[in-house]
Give the backbone structure.
Amino acid sequence: MHNRLILLSVIVAIVAVGYFGGFVQYLAPDRLGELLIEAGAWGPLVIVVLFAVLEPFGVPGAIFILTAATLWPFWLAFLVNWLGATGAGMFGFAFARYLGRDWVEGRMPDRLRKWDERLSEKGLPLVILFRLVFFLNPASHWALGLSRVSLSAAIGGTVIGFAPAIAVWTYFGAEILDWFGAQPTWIWVAAAVAIAALIVVRVYRGRRTARGVA
């Protein structure tokens, strides 16, 4: 109980600092880059902390990865992104296991629940595969926390499993960002419409299936 109160206090403090300190406005690659430049030598530490505490709760990890990739040489950007991603994975893990278990269980996708028994039995090798497959999906952090996998396997698997994708995203980060910026608006409108249509179809089919079962 004592550990849960400490973790909850840390989360509340971070959220409060982020909100009242005006950091929320920097959650875009260009604005975040400005913040990191102003931070000077503290920039790498700032992005690691922001990455670790915000990504598990829905802030896209790509924002941090692409920003670091455009600001610093590959070796530093990779290290920053690797530490931030690992911190995010383990922060989400800790939240699910020690603090928000009830809240997380109600939001866990079925496909991730199925990994529980296998993660508990296989340990480190399957955690590595799990991280390679789901990468920075916040629900995957929670799934590890809800599973019976050991803390050491979770840490080791996260460190190893994140490395390849972080290397690729960091190396091609600037090119990816430039590509996104070069696309016309209609591309994103069409993509949004397609995604919305897919969601509607899946919801409709799910309801029809539920009615059929009932």
Summary: The chain has a mean pLDDT of 76. Residues 76 and 210 are 50 Å apart (CA to CA). The chain has two domains: 2-182, 184-214. The longest helix spans residues 185-213.
